[in-house]
Amino acid sequence: MRNLKLLRTLEFRDIQAPGKPQCFSLRGEQGTVLIGSEHGLVEVDAVTREVKNEIPLVAEGFLPEDGSGCIVGIQDLLDHESVCVATASGDVILCNLSTHQLECVGSVASGISVMSWSPDQELVLLATGQQTLIMMTKDFEPIMEQQIHQDDFGESKYSFV
């Protein structure tokens, strides 16, 4: 960890955007920050601190109007030229920030707790509300689904080493 070095800190207190920040993602090539709230996505220029894009997910029905919605993950996808958004209600959405087109690429009935992408953006892992892990390819093809808590594990089961 000794090779980590703080380059700079930014404070975004005066941004005129609806909602409270729930999660964020950096868009390194564009020099912007994506901020997710209970209303949708906001893209903010890190230097000028101006809002470059605003994607309302409430208007499209992906988040509830009462403000109880939650974005649990955001990831900028260079291959898709889009941003992947996961909501607590279980939707996985691709947002094209240049055209503002939204596409629901999958839905999990029990909801999503966490979304995490591999560093090379080839795999995505979702933790669901039913305590399962779903691994998918970058094209959202399921690879595996596994319970987080195994029932067939313990003293009564054989272990092979």
The CATH architecture category equals: 7 Propeller
The biggest sheet, with number of strands, parallel, antiparallel or mixed sense and barrel status, is:
4 strands, antiparallel
Mean pLDDT value: 87
Overall SS class:
mainly beta
CATH class: Mainly Beta
CA radius of gyration is 18 Å
Distance between the termini: 32 Å
Number of helices: 0
Describe the structure concisely.
The chain is mostly beta strands and 161 residues long.
What does this structure look like?
The protein is mainly beta and 161 residues long. The protein has a single domain, classed as YVTN repeat-like/Quinoprotein amine dehydrogenase (Methylamine Dehydrogenase, Chain H, 7 Propeller), CATH 2.130.10.10. The chain contains no helices and 12 strands. The strands form 3 sheets. A 4-stranded antiparallel sheet has the order 1-2-3-4, with no helix packed on it. Strands 5-6-7-8 form a 4-stranded antiparallel sheet, with no helix packed on it. Strand 5 and strand 6 form a beta hairpin. The protein starts with 22 loop residues before the first strand and ends in a 14-residue tail after the last strand. The model has no long low-confidence stretch (mean pLDDT 87). It comes from Sus scrofa (Pig). This is IkappaB kinase complex-associated protein.
